[in-house]
Every structure is written in C-alpha cells, then in structure tokens.
Design brief:
Elements: H1 2-7, H2 10-28, H3 33-57, H4 66-79, H5 86-112, H6 117-140, E1 141-142, H7 149-165, H8 176-181, H9 184-189, H10 194-223, H11 225-228, E2 237-238
Parallel strand pairs: 1-2
Helix pairs in contact: 2-5, 2-6, 3-4, 3-6, 4-5, 4-6, 5-6
C-alpha cells in the first residue's frame, strides 16, 4: 500500500532521497579518506550485486545504458582500486546521476509510475550512490585534462557496446542510448526535415558531450580548490 502511494509521488520521493545524499556527502567530506572509501564501498556494493543478479535472472536485460554500465564500472573501480578507470567512473556516475534525478524530480511519476516498484526504488538508490561517489571523488581527487581521452574512449566504447548487443537486448521500454543512436527525436518532431534535423541532432549531441566533459573538470577545479593548494594532504589524490 505504502509502496503504491509512493509510486504516485516519485518526484517527492526522489527529491527527499537526493536531499539525503547531499547530507551524506556533506558528512563524508568532513571524514577521513579511509572512512570515505569504506562508506562508498558499502554503498556501491549493493549496486553491483543487484545489477549482476538482475542480469542473471533476466538475461535479456543486458546493461547498455550509460547508467546501467556505470552500475558495474563504478563499484568495480572503487572495490578493486582501478585508478585508470576512475576518471571514466566519475564522469559516467556524475552524468547518469544528474540526468536521472533531473528527470525523476520533473517527470518521475509520469515516466516511471507504471514500472515495477522494486526497479524504480533500486534505480533511485543506485543513482544516488553514483552521485555520492562522483561528488566525493571530485572533491578529493585532482583530475587533469590530458586524461580526458579516457572519457572519450569510454563514450565511444559505450556506443559500440550498445550497437553490438542490440540484437540480444529485450526491449520493453524505450532505451535512451538507442534513441540517441537512432536520432529518435529528429524523426519524431521533424519528419519532413530529416536531411537537416538528423545531422543537427548528432552535432548537438556531440556538443553536449564535449560540454559535459569540460564541465566535469570545472566542477573538479571549483570544489577541489581549497585542497589543490596542497596536494600532499591526506584527503587529496592526483590522477
């Protein structure tokens, strides 16, 4: 009964959960590096377990979205200390979290009210965990622009991964990455101007990715500014 009521107010629920994660981030920023890592690992382990179990139980539910791939990449990166993947993990976690919570707060009930409740609640938790990881890592790690090629490789890999697995994916709802690949919105809203609309869509999408990559470095510089003056501090890593 309670779960059904919450499904009718997903924008409120997601807003409350987002506030909780902001409070958690504020708390963790005051803790030691060791405490931060322990909490993040505890928070991200259920994301990995749930995603793995879900994929095993429903084989056709292969992770192809940026966020569902991040469900695996982010926990594995922090659990096994894969430093080379950290910049991709942070980018994918940050972008996934921001887009998801923006959609949930604005249109959550309209978009997701007919989804199975457990998948919605887990998605809210998972994206909150991704957001917490991304902000804490951006606050405690200095990233350099020379390594942004890793992000671009990750983006290209995500697109190729989605294309390669498309014949195996069970599609019950629209999948965002396939909407992007297919230029879905250009075909939907400008069917008579496809010769212009389709190339323009891809140009705008590429511009958005370029802007998001550079924005991550700006955020990193701004929130890391107090620590970056002294990279020998225990709370700061460099990548």
């Amino acid at each position: 009964m309670v779960f059904n009521i919450m499904m009718n107010h997903l924008n409120i629920l997601s807003s409350l959960v987002l506030i909780f994660h902001f409070l958690l981030i504020f708390f963790l920023l005051k803790q030691s590096k060791k405490t931060q890592q322990i909490v993040l690992k505890i928070q991200l382990l259920p994301v990995l377990i749930y995603s793995t179990g879900y994929m095993i139980m429903i084989p056709g539910k292969i992770p192809v979205e940026l966020s569902t791939v991040a469900y695996f990449i982010v926990p594995l990166t922090i659990l096994f200390g894969i430093k080379k993947l950290k910049i991709w993990a942070v980018y994918s976690a940050l972008l996934s979290g921001i887009i998801y919570y923006s959609a949930m707060i604005l249109f959550g009930t309209k978009i997701y009210s007919d989804y199975p409740p457990y998948t919605v609640y887990m998605a809210i938790y998972n994206h909150g965990a991704l957001l917490t990881y991304s902000y804490i890592t951006l606050s405690t790690t200095i990233f350099y622009k020379k390594d942004r090629y890793i992000i671009w490789i990750g983006i290209i890999f995500s697109i190729l991964w989605a294309l390669a697995l498309r014949p195996l994916v069970i599609v019950t709802k629209r999948i965002f990455i396939y909407d992007v690949i297919d230029a879905f919105w250009a075909y939907k809203y400008f069917p008579d101007l496809l010769v212009v609309a389709v190339p323009l869509f891809y140009i705008l999408f590429a511009a958005f990715i370029y802007f998001s990559v550079n924005s991550m470095y700006v955020i990193n510089k701004v929130i890391n500014k107090p620590q970056s003056k002294n990279t020998n501090k225990k709370l700061v890593d460099t990548i």
